[in-house]
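Notes from hallway chat w/ T.B., transcribed later so I don't forget. T.B. wanted the structure written out for a chain they're using in a teaching module, and asked if we could keep both sequence and structure tokens in one place. Agreed to drop them here.
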Amino acid sequence: MSNLLTASIGRKLLMSVSGLFLILFLFVHLTLNSFLLLDKVLGFKEVGQMFNAGVHFMGTNPLIKVIEPMLALGFLIHIIYSVILTVQNMKARGPQSYASGNKTSDVEFASQNMLVLGIVIFSFLAVHIMNFYMRMKGFITWEAGEVEFPFFGSMAKGENAYALVHETFKVLPIVLLYIVGSVALAFHLSHGFWSSFQTIGWNNSKWMPRLKCLSNILAIILGGGFSVIALAQYLFF
């Protein structure tokens, strides 16, 4: 186990596995966020009912309470080992790699800028946690108000999480920050997804082109999805 934590390949493996785990979380999160736009489409009488029901489900589900600390650990592992490996790569390349001031022309943008993209995503994540998670969990005071919403065939009561999200996405600088963060996430995923499988060992000539194509599709769905939701809330709700 100690070799896994200290050897370069072990660190890459931990970063890759944690990254794939976080992608699953992103899909769950995007699904929940899509509820912000789908009330009328799915027959809910009032705007926000579906999202409030989703938040209530996530907040009261025992499984989610178990997954939350695992998710936090996944983020920490991914961030820490990303920084460690980036520093190691910089040291291994040495000062001569920066002498010309030009980056390798045949290497994709995302691959060259994974650390910068990670910093942008981390900044976006910090703002997201402060705006939503910390308030919804009661660490920061906000006047939620209690509302009713359909919940598995009956009516339930819970905090008006939709009001918090709706009010936040009426602030243009925050919407722009979300779009920038989502675009950075898209670029990060366009390289990170297939690179994770390459680290695991699934890097043969047959599957790698497919994985790279799938990486671009995931990047568009996740990065574009979060951007569209934030912008739609600002413009149309």
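Follow-up for T.B.: The chain has a mean pLDDT of 86. Might be a good example for the class.
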